[in-house]
Fold these 4 entries.
Entry 1:
Amino acid sequence: MNTYIWIVSFALVLLTSCTGGSKADVGNNTKMNKQANTAKPSKQHIKTAPIGLNKPKVATGAIQIDIEDAYAKKGEEVCLSVSARSFTSILGLQHSILFDQKQLKYKTSKSFGLPGLSLGSFGTTKADQGSLNFLWFDMNVKGVTVPDASVLYDLCFEVLAKKGSTCKVTIGDKPLKMEVVGPNKSKLNLESKSGKISVQ
């Protein structure tokens, strides 16, 4: 019973920190699949640029989320893989995903790499304003661990920007505050690397 109460409480804390998402936007989170879609990242990327060999060190008590870089042409759809490092015994994770809505149009998310992660984990009511809300928690309350560089999900966009533009996709704390719950319900920091789409 205590475990169930903790799950509900944790979910409510995360959901109530979302400023601007509708009930329908976050309600789908309770309908997430019990098993992850562990399919490999889509090969539909137009051209993918390497994240870089000199990755920053992850601070103690933090996880790292990296968004990859890619190349595309105006009008094309391109997907960016979002990967994690130091993702050890994580119970819950939430953050905002930010981009310029004049340059990019959000299409979908896929290639889910966490148990229970689904389209319902992404709040899209403000996608036309350049932000998405991401919310995930471990329904088993045991903590999930994935190897470094594992893909958590893919973000797919239609490129609206003209040739020569650089379109950034970043992890942020507005409108949905960044929260990471680790082992023993400890609060961890979230460090991130933005991704960019270079328009050819």
Entry 2:
Amino acid sequence: MQLTPDDTIVLELGALRLNATIVSTWIVMAVLVGLSWLATRRLRPDAPPDRWRNTLEILVKLIEEQIHAVTRRAVHRVMYFAGTLFLFIAMSNILALVPGFKSPTGSLSTTVALTLAVLLAVPAFGIAHGGPRQYLAKFGQPSLFLLPLNLLGELSKAVSLSIRLYGNVMSGAVIAAILLGVAPFFFPVVMNLFSLLVGVIQAYIFAILAAVYISSAMADPPTENEQDCAP
């Protein structure tokens, strides 16, 4: 049984090998672009709202509210990044319900790539907010002796994010395979609904954690008065 889409070769042309992870990623991006075009093709101030526009506005508003609950700094810029992560992961897991489609989030290479994007975004947002000196100074707080531990903490974020998403997607695939072997006529519907719920939750958790890390990088350092008042 092949669990990861990396093991499935879809097209092979000499040295060029396209596995299911790459093809599935292209499909997810194409679906998102197509849905975005459908939702915005008639987006004008004088045009009456249709169901596509209403759905888009509700989705954007929900994402904005969740980001605003995490950080009040550059909400829209953080929302663009974290919202994109949420939509990509959620759509990848939703399309996994389609027979024959292998979710790219079931590949460790995809989850690591998403995590690297978050790790690059964290210093980018932090430096854009307070400058490189203020951002780098946080790694030496409260003492320079803790610099290695602070750097190790940044590395642990990458490991936790990638392993969490990959592990949850793969565990769902293993459970589904076991239950399908036990009761192939009853459990498919239940497992599809369960996989859909877990996929959306994982997309939400990943996006919120990304927003939390970015918010932490954009936080202003404590003032001398705040440090004196700290227990």
Entry 3:
Amino acid sequence: MNYCRLRMVDLDAFSKLSPICIIRFEDKDEILVFPTVTSDMVFVQSFKSLTAELFNASGIKLQTLAVNRNASFDMRKYPSGIYYVRLASENKTYKIVKW
């Protein structure tokens, strides 16, 4: 089970929190990489053990993580720009925008 809550911020800096939602994932083969637009963290969730790699837009590998259910990339140490999370064993790549 996963819990989710959104924080919505208006242009005038007024913010409000949504109610907490419960999310159940039934597909044990599903792999999630989120959020794809962030300023701090990118999370990788998988019921399979796999390796996730973070690349910058020039193709330079910045970090490698072993994913056993949950792992995260700390994007705060990198400048704003385009990044890619690659899951080589799944032949999948996810585009990440760091602002």
Entry 4:
Amino acid sequence: MKKVSRVELIKTLEQELSYKRFIHTLSVAGTASSLAMCYGADLEKAETAGLLHDCAKCMDVRKMQKVCEKAGLTVSSFEADSASLLHSKAGSVLAAEKYGITDPDMINAIRYHTTGRPGMSLLEKIIFVADYIEPGRFTAKNLPLIRRLAFSDIDEALMKILYDTLVYLNSTGLVVDPMTQKTYDYYKQIFEEKTIYD
């Protein structure tokens, strides 16, 4: 399938997302673009992945499940009935099948923008962080600090987001997706090893 142009992509998302989600999407794309400029990443890829990161967010959960099933993606018990988790996987499928995205790095950036994963690429980190710090976000703990870190040390910002997310989920009794914990443990070990050898 031919890749959808930037203008057509934005027009389509405006029609398919709620107004609030569309504004968030534009903010994530803008923040991702800024981070890409800061770290020398591909600007077009960062903006496009930012635009598409929530492309499945307004779908019904059952439809998300079907999209993933049809594409052969495994859906864990933690994801099955959770739109907040499942939309990332469904979105990565839509990005490829509906919007013509073929770049594996962009697909992964969309697929893992909610939980992260061990060994994330720079683009994956950019989308993960941009989703958390975009200007429309207000409620997360330590946002001013994380926003500063995002433009000085994206790995430290990533670690702080993962840590704060786990603390929040555990304090509220919400289920923690194992991938989020696995991602945090992976980067925590890297940070500890870095500290030892610095």
